[in-house]
Design a protein that fits this description.
Blueprint lengths: L4 E7 L1 E2 L2 E9 L2 E5 L2 E3 L6 H13 L1 E14 L9 E13 L9 E8 H6 L8 H10 L23
Parallel strand pairs: 1-7
Antiparallel strand pairs: 1-5, 2-3, 3-4, 3-8, 6-7
């Protein structure tokens, strides 16, 4: 039975630089936002908070939805990702935090650096999310209706 993969990503900008992660995918270095899959019983906002910490060692508080993206990698027929990208505030770095397997480093890069490394992007979603963020795309978190938990806990980590 086909079903899309629900994923989350954090678009985090500080002083004109964006927080990205360098990871190894099939031996190749790739760039991506801190991102990952929604886990069973988890809300989208909480998943983004968790993934950002696990992949970058930064605490993150989402404040808005940047966009929802659908992408099917051409080399993987039948696979589809639905990405929910959030922007928000960095609440600090957790020194000594062990990053997820495959993540080599969290890096802060300027837009021109990100474009120059486009061959390393894990997917076209990386730049699409940043471009939408820079264009001012912001949707309230209240847009997300989670019937599995009370509205007062949607932003809880």
């Amino acid at each position: 039975m086909w079903k899309p993969n629900a994923t989350v990503a954090a678009v985090i900008e500080r002083d004109g630089r964006f927080l990205l992660v360098e990871e190894r995918i099939l031996g190749a270095r790739k760039l991506n936002q801190p991102a990952g899959h929604l886990e069973a019983g988890e809300g989208l906002v909480a998943a983004c908070v968790r993934e950002t910490l696990e992949e970058s060692a930064y605490r993150f508080k989402p404040t808005a939805l940047v966009g929802i993206y659908q992408w099917s990698p051409p080399e993987r027929p039948g696979l589809t990702y639905l990405r929910f990208a959030f922007c928000g505030d960095v609440l600090g770095h957790v020194a000594g935090h062990t990053l997820d397997d495959g993540i080599e480093a969290a890096v802060w890069l300027g837009y021109d650096e990100i474009v120059a490394r486009q061959a390393e992007h894990r997917s076209p979603l990386l730049l699409a999310c940043i471009d939408d963020y820079l264009a001012g795309c912001r949707y309230p978190l209240a847009l997300l209706r989670d019937f599995d938990r009370p509205a007062s806990t949607l932003g809880a980590a």
